[in-house]
Structures are given as C-alpha cells and as structure tokens.
Amino acid sequence: GEIQNLGYELSLNAVPVRTKDFSWNIDLNWFRNRNEVVNLGDDIDNILLFSAWDVSINAVEGEPYGAIKGTNFVYLDGKKVVNDEGFYLKTDEEEVIGNINPDWNAGIKNTFRYKSFSLSGLIDIQSGGDIYSVNMKHGWATGLYEETAGLNDKGNPKRDPVAEGGGILFPETVYEDGTPNTTYYECNEWGTAYNYDDSPTARYVFDASYVKLREMALTYSVPSAFLSGKFIKGASFSLVGRNLWIIDKKTYHFDPEAAVSAGNQQGIESGSYPSARSYGIDVKISF
What we know:
Strand order of the largest sheet: 1-2-9-10-14-15-17
Low-confidence stretches: none
C-alpha cells in the first residue's frame, strides 16, 4: 500500500523578561499533518484496522488513514431527519463519518525563574480529530448520565410519559417531508430516546479536541557556590504534577485521550476509567 503524508512543524522560543534575578521563557511548538491512503493494492479499496459494536476504523483509498465508518444521520437541507414517531433516521449503508487524525496539535511551555527557584507549566492543545465512545452509548441508554434526566423544554420531567408532558424533542430535526419535528419521544426506560440499537453510529462520534494543563513543576536548583570544590557538580529538586486539568474539551463525561491506543487500535473509547492526576518528586544530581 501507499500513504502520502504532508506536514508542517513550527517552533518558537521567546524570552519576554530577563533580569539579573528573574526570567520568563516561552517555548511554543505547533504541528499539523495531512495524509491520504493513495493505494492499497489491486482490487482493494478498504482495510479494516479495528472495530467494536457498530463502528470501525479503516484505511480507505482516497481518505486519510484512520477513517471512522458506520451509519450516519439522514439529512435534509442540513437538518437531521426523524421518522413519524420522532426518532432519528439512519442511513442504510455504512459510510465515512469521521477520522481519528487531528487538524493540528500544539504545546506551550512557560518557565518563570527567580534566583534558584523555577516554576514551569506545559499546556497541550489538540484541535479536531474524532472519537467514538462506547461509554456514551451505554451511559445514555441506561440513564446513567445527567442529560437523560431533568426537565424537557416544556419544563416537565423528561422521564415522565409523553402523555403527561414528558419525553424529549430532538432539536433542529425535521420529518421526511421537511416540516419541523414536533413529536416528543419517550425517555422513561431503556430502549426509548437513548436507544443505541436504532441510533446512527454517528450519534456516538465526538470531537476529540482538548486543551490540557499537562504538567507543572516547581524546582529548586542548588546554587553552584554551595557545591564548589565538592564531588557533586549540580543538584535540583522538583515537585511535579501531571495531567492536572482538562481546561476545555468537546466530549461528554470522558477524556478524549482516554481511549484504546495501541498501534492501529485508536479512535474507539470503550470502558475507559476517568483519567487521574499524578504527583511526584524529581531529584537530579550530576557528578
């Protein structure tokens, strides 16, 4: 097979402030890559890389590597179409509904130094890319997540029967004839409004963008005057925290990085645990 890649990477280092006792350094790295599966060989236009439930990750000729395939919503003039009962319609055939590749990534590191102390922080950014979530599929269907409860747009409990003012109205949807959808759908048990058996695969594909505070470190470097004439040439002690804060993300209830990720097994989040912070001490000594 043949895959074509074209990418750009930019790096910038700046020192906005520098005095005898204080300095501020900024390190910026930005990169993007575009790839295309050009050729998979004779009579082959798709190779399955990874699959689960109703979704698969593929190498498709003419598409970027890592195409997400499954059933899609049916659209009419840009709006999702529902049937007479008010539930989403889905395409009869699978199609490409996303891709695991981000539009771009970036990292920004700020380091502040005052005499023998320094404080650094690293922010990681990903823009774009898609991820399919099995957790969302099951969490919605079983009523685990908060959006399956509460009040509907009428001010009534969603989990009340539709006949009593409950249920939900899928927003910005139309019937097959193009008229606005006005039919509320039951939301009071498994298999109703959040039923995944009848839902398009695309209902569980999310934007994998994020902004994270990846790491912070507070460091004390032993002044060289204290080590003069000793067999230790340098020493520093750091308090380090990692994965400290998801500043922004587009996914619901899960970390867009918390997915299966081993070789080709990317793009499907399934049964992931909540991401955890970590804290540690870093000691460096040179002789």
